[in-house]
């Protein structure tokens, strides 16, 4: 007997969790950033400022089949058809392995840096509703998840009314996620795609207008600089550059990163162009695996792996890229016990991934017990608000108590 559930999409999540956010957007006027604003800001990123990229996995990713306790007999007993054997997973120590689709992330793990796995992350009195749980994660408010987004509060705190305000936080999603909506300020959206400029002889002629000329008056010099910025940004965000060759760093995903790969390629280009954005949001959906989980999750984790690995490796080649930290989370994990449809139902605690050149690497947090359960679910040992607080403090350089009020613990080493 298969479990039937409504189709869940990224848009449904964003719309259903943005009740207050929609009202706030009418006030603060969230917009799609035009390309001319982006290229005009190229080069403005503070070289000492951290950049945070938030990747949301919509649907409730099964953490137990992502960071797999394959050597635990309780895991094998709870999932006789769905469990991975120890020899099937990618060993990361302590009887745990990564899903076999995550070969790139295994390479980052083996490097001893770039990847940190925070185990057993959740919140008190967990909710199995996709929409309420996602609202809780996006607002960092477990008891009243209907206010400003947690990074929206950061926008409110750092806003100075300058021209950089609309560029401080960008989403590659068509609907602005609630996490970027504050009481007074909101992030903007920028759609992945190609920045269309002339190529060949005409393109070279246009590029020639960007050449500096000591006889230019101030307005001609500014126009020439703008053309130069546009070319720099096009080369950064468009895989195809002069002569039809493909930038090797962009080609790392080989198309396997899917939509998320395209989103992260765009973000990488903007970072390399030193656009002054401090927070980016991207997402991948489809993780609501009530039935036939193995194939679906492996396909999605393969896309996640290719997109993240190519992104981290690409950014490791530039000073701006080494300013980036990536947070990967889902609204909840899945039940320990498999269901009758070779899938899993809505659960609670799940691992969070942190990536970037500044990561210390390794495990953080306690591995949840598979026998000491809370109503059949994993017990959380790390409150997600403490993860947020650490990122606000260490990456964004802001006061975590203002951005994540009520976070129960301190910050921890990243």
TrEMBL record:
The keyword Transmembrane helix does not apply. Keywords: Signal. The keyword Plastid does not apply. InterPro entries: DUF1501 (IPR010869), TAT_signal (IPR006311). It comes from the Bacteria. It holds the Pfam family DUF1501. Residues 1-18 form the signal peptide. PANTHER family: BLL7424 PROTEIN (PTHR43737), DUF1501 DOMAIN-CONTAINING PROTEIN (PTHR43737:SF1). This is DUF1501 domain-containing protein.
């Amino acid at each position: 007997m298969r479990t039937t559930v409504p189709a869940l999409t990224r848009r449904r999540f964003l719309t259903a969790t943005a009740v207050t956010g929609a009202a706030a957007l009418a006030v603060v006027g969230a917009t799609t950033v035009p390309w001319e604003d982006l290229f005009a800001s190229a080069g403005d990123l503070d070289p000492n400022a951290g950049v945070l990229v938030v990747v949301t996995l919509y649907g409730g990713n099964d953490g137990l089949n992502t960071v797999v306790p394959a050597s635990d007999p309780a895991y094998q007993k709870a999932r006789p058809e769905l469990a991975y054997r120890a020899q099937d997973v990618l060993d990361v120590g302590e009887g745990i392995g990564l899903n076999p689709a995550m070969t790139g992330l295994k390479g980052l793990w083996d490097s001893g840096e770039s990847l940190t796995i925070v185990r057993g992350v959740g919140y008190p009195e967990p909710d199995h509703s996709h929409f309420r749980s996602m609202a809780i994660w996006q607002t960092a408010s477990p008891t009243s998840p209907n206010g400003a987004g947690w990074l929206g509060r950061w926008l409110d705190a750092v806003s100075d009314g300058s021209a950089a305000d609309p560029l401080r936080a960008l989403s590659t999603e068509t609907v602005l996620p609630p996490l970027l909506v504050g009481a007074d300020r909101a992030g903007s959206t920028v759609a992945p795609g190609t920045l269309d400029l002339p190529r060949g002889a005409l393109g070279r002629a246009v590029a020639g207008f960007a050449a500096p000329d000591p006889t230019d008056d101030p307005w001609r010099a500014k126009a020439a600089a703008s053309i130069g910025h546009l070319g720099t940004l096009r080369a950064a965000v468009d895989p195809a550059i002069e002569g039809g060759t493909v930038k090797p760093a962009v080609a790392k995903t080989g198309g396997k990163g899917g939509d998320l790969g395209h989103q992260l390629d765009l973000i990488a280009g903007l970072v390399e162009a030193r656009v002054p954005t401090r927070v980016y949001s991207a997402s991948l959906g489809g993780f609501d695996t009530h039935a036939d989980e193995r194939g679906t999750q492996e396909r999605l984790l393969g896309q996640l792996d290719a997109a993240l690995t190519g992104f981290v490796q690409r950014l490791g080649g530039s000073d701006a890229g080494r300013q980036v930290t990536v947070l990967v989370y889902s609204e909840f994990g899945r039940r320990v016990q498999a269901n009758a449809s070779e899938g899993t139902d809505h659960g609670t605690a799940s691992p969070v991934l942190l990536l970037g050149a500044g990561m210390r690497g390794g495990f953080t947090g306690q591995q949840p017990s598979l026998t000491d359960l809370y109503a059949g679910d994993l017990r959380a040992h790390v409150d997600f608000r403490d993860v947020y607080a650490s990122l606000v403090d260490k990456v964004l350089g802001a006061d975590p108590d203002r951005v994540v009020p009520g976070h129960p613990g301190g910050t921890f080493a990243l």
